[in-house]
Every structure is written in structure tokens, then in C-alpha cells.
What we know:
Helix content: 40-55%
CATH class of the largest domain: Alpha Beta
Largest sheet: 5 strands, mixed
Distance between the termini: 127 Å
Amino acid sequence: MVAEARVTRQTARRAESAWKYGFRGIAHRRGPDHTAEQEVIPSARVDALTVISAVLGACVVLLVALLVVVGRRFRRAEEERRRSRALAEIASSLDLDEVLTRTLEEAMRLAGADAAVIRLEAAGTEDGEPLVAALGVPAEALQRLTSPAAEDDGGVSVALPGGDEPLGSLTVHAEEVRRGFDEGDVRRVGELAAEAAPAIENARRFSEARRLADVDALTGLHNRRYFHETLAREVARAQRYSRRLSLIVFDLDDFKNVNDRIGHLGGDAVLAEAAQRVRGVVRRADVPCRVGGDEFAVIMPESGLEQAEQLFVRLQQGISAGPIAHVGRLSISAGVAELQPDDLSFSLFERADAALYAAKASGKGQAARTGPT
Length: 373
């Protein structure tokens, strides 16, 4: 009882001191006899803890905000480095296909697009038609996505700037119209088009210069060097993937007599008109070449002897359809050969060439086929 009275008196004195000196906080602790006691904490200490907590909270908020800003700047710097690398890769190549492909890939990445199309206008192209390159676009959708209505179909189209006039256009497309593109997407694609355009123009000029180096000046067909390079490449591809490949080698019958009668300049005119007729009957996938003199060849990817013989019929009809220059109607003789498993490019050519001589020995104006040697 005495101990309890002592604790009660001590508690009362503390309470009186708390009231007198402005103590606010109360803490619980164990007394010497392990009984629960209440301890009053000074208000100064409470205020100090509150201030410290507020400062720490503000520091945490400030640190989070700083991390957000640093993260954004880091991502922006990383994106800028990524963009610089992509532009450097685009500008480092003179291969037109590679430059166009890299530009399309970067456009799709920048805009988060599902497909992209580049359309280059006819200037400088071999057949006078616009050149179209695409990624993620089915062939049947190309015309739709390069039309002025592309933007109404979930796409954005920007010009590829040139010197006097635009080179063409770059279009990005989203499969879902509701996805759309915002102003940032349009700006990024436009900046890419402006920065990639010089590389595209350089690659196109290089491609055109190379094409002219591969073309026979008289006939406009591919020349002998291009023929042998392409034949070797097509043979390697066909052998690797087990695809069919055929070759036609033909010449104009009695062309020596033509030269003797009207001279070499007249003979050149005959060759030029004959080549024009050849271009009119070959398929788009075929590769017509002038091998030398009045000898021509057509490389036929994905084709067998049957297709080669059908092309010979069309060539014969085209050449003999009407008079050429001042020499009247002409005919051709041809040798056809299909790639065999053990063929190299030179053996395929030798077999087709041997078949040509066999056709001429048999009376001209016809085609002879050859099997494996």
C-alpha cells in the first residue's frame, strides 16, 4: 500500500509539472516494480520530431522527382544516341535497297507503326515507273497505302525532300485506325524523312550509275559482264534452295549477211530494234542480256525447259512479226538448258550455247534443248 501511494504521488507531481511547464506527449514505461507508468514527453521534442519527419518526407519527394527527371533525360539521351546510330547506318551505305530498308525500319520504330512504305518518283528509275519499297505491307495493299488517302486509313505520309522537287514520300501505317498517330509521331517521321532523304538520293544516283555500267549502250539490255555475274548469282541461289532455273541463248539468223548488205551502222540499228522487241515479250522476272555481237541470252529464274521453250516461241514471234529496219523479216535460233544439280554457271551457259549451235546446224529458225552432260 505504501508503494502504491508513492507511485500515485509521483504520478500526480508529474502531471502537475506537465501542466505547469507545457508538456504535451505522454509515453508508457515500466517502473522499478514492473508496473506500468506513464511518462510525459516535452512538446519541444514532439515538434522537433515532426519537423524532422517533414524534412525527411520532403527529401524523399525531392529525390523521387530528381530520379524521374534524371530518368527522362537518360532515356532522351539514349534515344538520341539510338537515332544517331540509325541515321549513321542509313548514310553509310550506297546500296539503295539497304538504305530504304533501314529507313523503313526506323520510321516504324519511331512512330510505333505496323507498316511503312517509301515511294520514289519515276526520275532515275530503269523502267520509268515509281520505285516502291515497303515493310509489313501485303502486295495488294501497296497502292492504297501510297495514295493521298493513306492518312484517312490510319496512316501518316510525309514528303522526302529533294533539290528542286520532292524525291517521293514516306508513309507509316497503323493496322487499327483508332490507334492513330499524334503530333510527336508526325514530327519524328518528318525529321527522319528530312535526314534520310540525302542518303536515299545518293544511293539512288549510285544505283543509276551502276545500272548504266551494267547496260549495253547499243541495245539497252544488260551487258556481258552483268550477264555472267547474274547467272552465277542465280545458279548459286537455285542450287542452295533447290529451285528451278533455265537459260535461253539465241542469235539472229544470217546476221552476217545483214552487215554485209547494209553495213555495220545499219546492222546496229537492226540489233537495237531486235532488242526492243525482246524487251516486249520477256517476263518481269526474266533477265535479258546482250552477250556479244548478235548473240543474246535470257536468264529465267523459277522456270523449267517448258517455260523456256514457250518464251522462245514468243521471242520468235516478236522478232519475225514485221520487217526490221531495211532488211525485212528476221528469225532467230536458240538453245535452251535447265539447271542440273551438278551445274555451275559456266557449265549451264556452255550447254545452252552448244544447243544454239545444234539448232543452227539443224536448219535455223528453231530451238534445241540440252540435257545434263
